[in-house]
Amino acid sequence: MTLDLSGKTALVTGGTRGIGRAIVEALAEAGAKVAFTYRSSSDAADALKAELEANGVECLAIQGDAADTAHAGEAVQAVIDAWGSIDVLVNNAGITRDTLMIRMSEDDWDIVLDTNLKSVFNFCKAAYRPMMKQRGGSVINISSVVGVTGNAGQANYAASKAGIIGFTKSLARELGGRGVRANVVAPGFISTDMTAGLSDDVKDVMSTSIPLKRPGNPEDIASAVTFLASDAAAYITGHTLHVDGGMAM
Ligand code: NDP
Fold first, then answer.
1. Mutation test of ligand 1: which of 63, 192, 193, 244 has the most ligand atoms closer than 8 Å to its C-beta?
2. Strand 9-12 to strand 180-187: parallel, antiparallel, or no bridges (unpaired)?
3. Domains of the chain (ranges, CATH numbers)
């Protein structure tokens, strides 16, 4: 099945690197006009925008902190001003501040919850009314296997990712009657900058414990997101799609 997003507009938070970048590229390849946000990687943002435009894709690169409510409103408005609608919203921006609870500071907690969970509220709130008025839209929020299983040293991260699942189910119930769908993709262990710093031992242990016996690629996540964004998933809402090689079954 070919997934067709021609004529659709999409906004992806944290699009410059890793999973977000692969999502931006996949949505563009499926025919969407794509806007993406980023926090600080201006060179990567410029390079991605140039790559997409060279392929004839309309693109916006928007700098800002996803945890900032005003930035979220401005980013959604920029998409509507440029293209008249916001059809797909992917909340991908996320960070880790891993440490055991005994050492976890209030700042470790706040920055992870603000970046990973408050950002989802910010962007969904900004897109809520436009999608409601359009009577259509697809919201895809990126959680994590850890939001379902928990993980020692990641209480802040796991709480933020579990929160995304409850939030998304609530949004799906609120907006289903308006034709707006809201789903979660929960990645497992994916090779990106976020996991590059783990020791080889930890990576080996994780890979051998994954039923499919390999870490995932950003493209594995991007294809699931593209499916949920498309009309091929027209009857799916409130779902958490695990893309983790079998880690959390
Ligand atoms: P990376 O660290 O590789 O990339 C993070 C992206 O998010 C970058 O584009 C970064 O922008 C952006 N970003 C970070 N903080 C902010 C912020 N405050 N405002 C706006 N943008 C921000 O992460 P991954 O690609 O690995 O992860 C993407 C998502 O997938 C995250 O939500 C993560 O929790 C989730 N995930 C990842 C897994 C993995 O194994 N990698 C597993 C499960 C879930 P900039 O380049 O400007 O810093």
1. 192
2. unpaired
3. 9-243 (3.40.50.720)
